[in-house]
Amino acid sequence: MIDPGRITHIAFDADDTLWAHENVFVDAKKAATELLRPYLGEKDIEKELYRFEKKNLAIFGYGIKGFMLSLIETAIELSSGKISGGEIQRIIDLGKEMLEHPIELLTHVSEAIDLFEDHYPLLIITKGDLFDQENKIARSGIGDHFSIVEIVSEKNPKSYRKICRKHEIDPRGLLMLGNSLKSDILPVLEIGGQAIHIPFEYTWHHERTEADKSRDGLAIVESLEEAVNLVFPGVV
Question: Can you tell me the mean pLDDT for 87-105?
Answer without folding.
Answer: 95
